[in-house]
Amino acid sequence: MAAVTNTFESVKATILSAHESTTSVEKVNFYNSWAENYDQDVAVLDYRAPSLAANSISSHFSSDREAAVVLDVACGTGLVAKQMKRHGFGHFMGIDGSEAMLKLARESGLYQDLKQSMLGEGPLPVQWGLFDVVVIVGALSIGQVPVGVVRELCKSTKPGGYICMTTRSNRDNVEYKAALEHELKQMEDEGLWTCVEVAEVEDWERAVSQQEDGYIAGAVYLYKKLKL
Ligand SMILES: C[S@@+](CC[C@H](N)C(=O)[O-])C[C@H]1O[C@@H](n2cnc3c(N)ncnc32)[C@H](O)[C@@H]1O
Q: What is the CATH number of the domain that holds 50?
């Protein structure tokens, strides 16, 4: 593992520079430039979302984990698959918009298949109803993946399979989080899935904005796709 060389202040400056990216293409370009330092920088931020999501899935998934096929959406460098592997999952497909993040995911050797795709610009490039688990961590937030993509996550999941999502609960993401929760509830009312667990976590990751200090909060949502 690479030594952690970046300081909290330098990581904070990197992340604040991403706020200048207004379009999703600019945001993905930001990740292209950040990819090489991403793992060590998020360790400085005490970023625990991948392990929190993997724990949530693991505590409810009762079928054969070795046989299960997992779709990791906005997979980045592969931190979610790394955590899920610790819980016995072994088959991963990843999707991300950033070629540089995908290159590192490829080098991790954790994924059977990886695809470059801009989320929110068309249907997910996967077969519907194929995956035992669909997971998206660290990407459902303002300026990244549009809320509407959660319908695609549900479509890709097998009936009876799980969908795990995370978002931030801090100030700049309040409106996005409300829109996300509205969509999750709407889909439950439509009979597409049922809510298994929502965990609000106080010490989600270290705050980087000028208005916040200490840790910001975040949330993990686990849904089960209803059998058709
Ligand atoms: C914070 S990283 C999270 C990566 C990984 N899931 C993790 O938890 O470490 C966000 C990822 O989402 C991807 N991303 C953000 N917006 C996207 C979009 N609209 N389409 C495709 N990928 C996107 C970025 O390229 C980046 O790899």
A: 3.40.50.150
